[in-house]
Amino acid sequence: MFVGIETTNILVLGSGDNLHQQVLASFPLCDVTEEDLTQNPQFCKLLATLTQHVDRSGLTVPLKADLDRAEQKLQSQKRQWLRFESLHRGLQEMIQEFYVRKHNSTVPPDQNMFYETMERCLRVTRCAKQLDPSSITSQDQPSVLGLTPQQVLQLLPSEKNVQRMKQALPRQLERRLKEKCLSLVSYYQPEWENESEGLKTNKLSHLSTLLDKDKKRTELLKETCRENTVLLQRQTQLYLSELIKCVQLLQTLILDHRLKIQTDLDRKKLDYFEGKCELVLQKIKTEMVEIQLDTYSLDTISAHRKIRENLESELTACKAEKQALEMKLSSFEILGKAFEALADEYCRLRQEIDMKNWALKELTKYNEK
User: Fold this and answer.
1) 3-state secondary structure string across 259-271
2) How far apart are CA 111 and CA 116, in angstroms?
3) CA 59 → CA 48, 63, 223, distances in Å?
């Protein structure tokens, strides 16, 4: 029997996505998404059944009714307290304004008597109320300075003055409240401030209706704002979840791409280092060849220098020998065949000197190159 009632309630709400939307709308404070309801159909049915017994705030129907009655009673008592509080503050403001006027100018005696009587009545009544705890608690409390409410009430003005005050008070209080209401109208709608008093009074009769409309509109805006806040939170969660999925997918793609191109990068790095090593080796070989050539050139120059020194020494010796022979030749010109033999020796030495001079010149030219 219960299953049949549950199924009927679910059919009344709807089915499929419509049911999910209605369940989410019935529980705006519940942190549940449509995806959760789709993945848990039994939980969705349970929430759909609870919508018949629970309101949007999560309270049961009987408890909500009791809460509404208590709220109405509280509002009634609050209105009553506000009524008396408004009257009391209005009277106090009237007394304060009277003393201000009295300080700045002379007031008529009847007004002076009226406001003094009203002030004295307010003070005596307030003191008597403070001394009488029966209206607040049932427990007996010690009296203040041994005074009783009856003793304080004896300080009231004379009955004649009180009656006069009571007769004039409604008119004065009405005028005072009317001024405050008109100022409230001007505050509510500043463009009405320059209008006539009759028109303001007419609009004052509709002020409560306007305030109720504004209050309802404000509550509706608050409810809309609350719903938008819940919707924004859900959308933010969905957005964050989707964003996390996108980030994970992007990380996977980056990792796959990195693994695919890592081989090509390694191969290119290897080719680069191989080419760089070859260039370094080629440069080293070139430097070694230059060093060898420089070493060979130094050895060759040193050998040629030694050869030149030997040839120069031999040339010097030949020149000395030539000079000696020329001296001998001049001394032996007088000789006959002996001189011829000496002349042949001289020619031989002369040819040898010329040959060595030629070799010396060739060696000098080679060194200069």
Assistant:
1) HHHHHHHHHHHHH
2) 8
3) 15, 6, 17
For residue 60, the cross-strand partners are 54
234: nearest Cα among 36, 22, 26, 90: 36
Question: Which whole-number Å values give the CA distances from 308 to 230, 323, 366, in the listed order?
Answer: 110, 22, 11
- 76-85, 110-119, 282-291: which range is least confident on average? 282-291
Check residue 74 and give its pLDDT. Answer: 93
- Stated pTM of the model: 0.43
Report pLDDT for 73.
Answer: 92
- Mean of the per-residue pLDDT values of the chain: 76
Q: At what angle do helices 109-131 and 159-188 cross, to 10 degrees?
A: 90
pLDDT tens for 123-144 read 888 887 777 665 555 555 556 6
Mean pLDDT, residues 17-38 taken together: 70
Q: How far, in Å, CA of 180 to CA of 90, rounded?
A: 9
